[in-house]
Fold these 3 entries.
Entry 1:
Amino acid sequence: MKVILRQDVDNLGQMGSIVNVKPGYARNYLIPRELAYHATPNALRIFELEKKQFEKIRAFEKADAEKISAQIADLQISIPMKVGEEGRLYGSVTSQMIAQELELRGYEIDKRQIIIEDAIKTLGVFDVKVRLHTDITANLKIWVISEE
């Protein structure tokens, strides 16, 4: 079944792409969540007319992501955590905690955009990736410090 994507979908395509997916995936996931719509002949004609608008939106989003990436690259975030023996944390630093710290600094970044490769369970400095756009990923330094 062919669908036209309304938003970027991981491992499938970018906004405005025409992709072929299984009917169940389209009916039960993509279409109800308004991530895509059926690629009917009429919808394809409308899509061709709106394609330039999609490209302008993509260019604007990419430029905005590049600007935010440059700003985030200079940031260093400190996250205070309770520490047990030998510098091990009670719990771990989550993407939600990082997103809240970024929000306090004025950046609206969803926790799903923050990629933590290995669990952060000790004190120290860690690099975390922030996926701002399909093509743009920023690196962010996280300092995990003792709460005391």
Note: The mean pLDDT is 89.
Entry 2:
Amino acid sequence: MSMKTGLYVLQGVDPAQVAAAPFDVKVVEIYDDNGRLFGSEQVRQMGGGPGGALLLGYFSIGEAENYRSYWSTIPKSAIGPVDPNWPGNYEVKYWTDEWKSVAKTEIDKMLAAGYDGAYFDVVDEFQLPWAERNAPGGDAAGAMKILIQDLSAYAKAKVPTFKIWVNGGEELLTDRRYLASIDGLFKENLFYDSDGSARRSTAATRTSLDYLKLAQTAGKDVIAIEYVSGAAAIADVQAKADAAGMGSYIARLDLKGVSLDGVRPGQVMHDDGLAQQPLAPSAPPATDPGADPNPVDGTSDDKPLAGIGGRFIAVLNGRAILRRSGGDAVTAAGIVGSGPPANQAAPDPAAVLLSVPEPPVPDGSSTGSTAPDAGDRIIGDARTDGLLAQPDGAALIRALQGAGMEADLTLLTGEDVFGMG
């Protein structure tokens, strides 16, 4: 996996400047300096949509900001202490329904404008004493994981290719369901302190790197954000980031405007990979599971998993079984979430393990389109240990691979996933 470069601008967002900046992942404030939302044309100019950079809209998930339009909708009882470093920003009870509603509204604005994804800031709010004292059961970390997982599922159910990136909170990456719900991370102050004046301790950096490695191993991109200045410090950041297998961005403390301080000779913006890739030939028909709860004969583990009700949907090399509750039809809504389009030959018949029958087309659904949506055929590729979804009538298969497969299935289908072996 090639290292991606990043851009982070929260003030003075100039669409033309952002568009021209040679970075792969661009995080921008979705409002201009006068509080107006950027329109779809400006979002497209900055890189929203297939091709160009991956454009992520900013949302502070761990703090409420009193200059936002949502401020008056939050109960005062949900507002905590002010952030001493950012006047107007307050800790918030992010586990409440009211805050989740705020977050969904901001995500909806990003979806409507055409952003490629959302960027959640202040994820590490869960580490602060006020959150720990007030979170349900004292589990501030668990509450943050649940919120991000829920918001990821919400966004991807609407636009399956929509990406969720987070800033920090790398301690949460030990939870595979949380890990599966995100697509990448920025990590501020990984090598230097918050104002870039001194290096962090080797132990602190190593601890963060160990957590971040979990994301990298799962195929997630990580980008280090540092606030250093001077050629020597910039070179030091880049050398350390290179050694850790991640990109970097040298930011300004006020995050105002595009900083080109860390741009290397020959650095260019790479395509975001969101454009659909053609695949030929189409996959052969898969076997209908019918009412038989057993995995398909001939797989690496064809014995039933005892003690679980309902009906099984898929087995991949004996590792994961998806159960549909009762006898209800199961759809494949959003099962494209954690990987790019798979531009590979279709699996041979022996690799096809199981198929989900097309359910009746509900009113207003997009079933039948070439986009990944509810009702798409699901197959398994035993060679890659991946789950594939084939949109109706489209010569396209998207892969969902890796250790996060089971968690992705649970989050995106609402069904239970059981590991085997």
Note: The first strand starts at residue 6 and ends at 9.
Entry 3:
Amino acid sequence: MNLDPFRPTPFSTLRLNANTVAGAAPTLLNLPHGGGTQVRLWNRGTVPARIEFGNKAAMTLPDATSMALPAGAVEIRTLQQGERFAAILGDGGAPDVEITVGGGF
């Protein structure tokens, strides 16, 4: 596990400010192949956001049982092998989430 401070990969931030549409989950930017890569999640919005990561654009969309990211929160998550796509859902409003690929905590 890398306990160094988080360092972003250049040109790797994806901003999602609308609920993900079925079959259209975007690919994370400049993501290296293999598992163990970290992403920094920042909920820029005023409502909690639900987030899921998957291995295809037609991935399962987030629901009430998905990981919640409170408004204003910043979290680091380690991706599993094959997780290259992201989907978000705002709880009661439009989400506004930035996902940055990098390494460290």
Note: The chain has one domain: 7-103.
